[in-house]
């Protein structure tokens, strides 16, 4: 009998740089499976520019913590062997593993090169601030510690179209490389004039050998790790024409159900919809618009109309291509896209992604286990376990919405005969304690339902007509079901 899918992002920005994270996954996998997690999204597994790099400052895609490079063998998260062992435990627990893939740039080059550039305005990359000039940039990647094992491909200035530092003048800026057929990609978003360039040495996907190399690398990762899917970083900065080609190549190579979700950080759902169309619906996208709905609803409190919580979201328009989430490593406090959902609203937000039919939910490691760093945030494991239990055991079958009050909304899942005691009624409030009369089915008459979250102490008996009046505390959520 098929159970609901639930993914976990198994890291936050400040997990300790102790090389023990793959071991943490290995030990956590059985408990994650027990609470209903059947897929984990892992941070970038390749060697970054230092032992403390989170992996997004990617140096060598083929070094998974195996070679002595950048003054370390392990990555921030551990060694290649420890990664393979953790994946094997996940496989034993029937937890699918998705690898975070960074394809926009390279960082921590081995040598500098001299090349011609123009400096551009960081706020409008189409606006040139200088005449052509020569800089000394960090663009030569030879990977001496790996010595061509797994791949003989090396990178140089020809393979990039932008960088951010001139070694000769010690000046930081945004520099567009000059040369035949050089320029920003036209197939990216037009934020900041053209948002091809994000950071470090920006990969030029107009170069044929680069395209071939990045497809070859993806195949190598699949073969080496036997993973079940990818999470793609920063896709809005990558040539969408190439992304379409890359997705086709990966899906053709795997000959199986290989899961791919992209991070396209944009709250305008129309932009996300257009990207899905451009890439022939070969991947899913994180529902950034819904995340910002949660962020706004938490800040506004009773001034937010809960009836509109799904308006203009990806899960509303493209439910089969939406990965829903509450927060992630970028939105957590003090990070680049900080938009942290306030604690009081977290249970409501998680109920909205875990207990409804549409979308594929992703639980954030930082919400489950807590966050370190400049701001320490306590984990909400007990709260999330109760909602994960409700998702795994109860949230099945047809759905009826009661979005009829700006301050209190609810819905019913009617359950499936094949899943014993399934079905539930969910009610949440962003204002005062209230109640809502909802229909759960005449066959339920006489059943006694309780709040699985323990937020409300009442016991509710289903009436003869299949209705019941379900209460909720102020600024809270209750999940009513047969215990």
CATH architecture of the largest domain, by name, is Alpha-Beta Barrel
Mean pLDDT: 97
Count of separate DSSP helical elements? 10
CATH superfamily grouping of the largest domain: Glycosidases
Total number of distinct structural domains = 3
CATH class of the largest domain: Alpha Beta
Please describe what this structure looks like.
- This protein is of the alpha/beta class and 483 residues long.
- The chain folds into 3 domains: 7-103 and 209-393, Glycosidases (TIM Barrel); 106-207, Elongation Factor Tu (Ef-tu), domain 3; 399-482, Immunoglobulin-like (Sandwich).
- The chain has 10 helices and 27 strands.
- It has helices at residues 21-34, 80-92, 208-225, 240-254, 269-278, 288-300, 314-317, 346-354, 365-369, 381-393; strands at 7-9, 39-42, 47-48, 58-60, 96-101, 105-106, 111-121, 124-128, 133-140, 160-166, 171-177, 201-203, 229-232, 259-262, 284-286, 322-325, 360-364, 370-371, 377-378, 399-402, 408-413, 424-429, 434-439, 448-451, 459-461, 467-472, 476-482.
- The strands form 6 sheets. Strands 1-2-5-13-14-15-16-17 form an 8-stranded parallel β-barrel. Strands 6, 7, 8, 9, 10, 11 and 12 form a 7-stranded antiparallel beta sheet that branches. A 6-stranded antiparallel beta sheet has the order 20-21-22-27-24-25.
- Helix 1 (21-34) links the parallel strand 1 (7-9) and strand 2.
- Helix 1 (21-34) packs parallel to helix 2 (80-92) and helix 8 (346-354) packs parallel to helix 10.
- It is elongated.
- The two termini are 20 Å apart.
- The model has no long low-confidence stretch (mean pLDDT 97).
